[in-house]
Amino acid sequence: MICIRPVHARYLIFWGLLLTLGVERMSSSQAAAQVSCSLEKEDRAASLLPDARGSWLALLAHQEAFVSCDDGALAEGYSDAVAQLFVQKWDQLGVFVDLAKKHPDFQRWAVRHIDATVSDDDLNKIIANAATCIDDVAVANICKSIRRAAENALVESTQMRQ
Question: Where are the alpha helices (H) located in 89-139, listed in sequence order?
């Protein structure tokens, strides 16, 4: 008898849905060529996003599958997902760094989603987390870009409230 833990089952379901829907894995530049995002695709992206929020690998797969839908409410959902991974799962920074090296577009995308829609508390936590690795030669540039994005978002958030 095969026993799958509920968390793993959710990821299997997520991946199965992506494959069932015929979503091919493609580079961000290839996906960007598909300029439009149909309402159906946007709805699918929104419905699958909660399952993609738990890990960098799942978020990468979701982002690549639905890159043309990165706007509006879905973009805010991406910003929240990125922020929560940097806040609550900072111990997985190594996974992000590995993915960022293999997928530079994903790194730029994730850092771009550290924006003023993220709460000030989370932005401050991201700044504090990024400060812990700035002296680590292997990840210094990534940590600096994460910290800079959070600082800029915090400034923008403050200006929006004035």
Answer: 93-102, 104-112, 120-131
pLDDT per position in the chain (162 positions), as tens?
A: 455 555 555 655 555 555 555 444 444 444 444 568 999 999 999 999 999 999 999 999 999 999 999 999 999 999 999 999 999 999 999 999 999 999 999 999 999 999 999 999 999 999 999 999 978 888 999 999 999 999 999 999 999 888
Q: How many domains in the chain?
A: 1
Distance CA(113)–CA(44), nearest Å, equals: 20
Q: Is residue 44 part of a domain?
A: yes
Residue 13 lies inside a defined structural domain of this protein? yes
**pTM (whole model) above 0.70:** yes
Q: Identify the DSSP state of 67.
A: G
As a whole number of Å, the CA-based R_g of the chain is 16
CA angle 114, 119, 120 (to 5 degrees): 95
Q: Which domain holds residue 126?
A: 6-161
Within a domain: 1: no
Q: Residue 153 class from Cβ within 10 Å (0-12 exposed, 13-18 middle, 19+ buried)?
A: buried
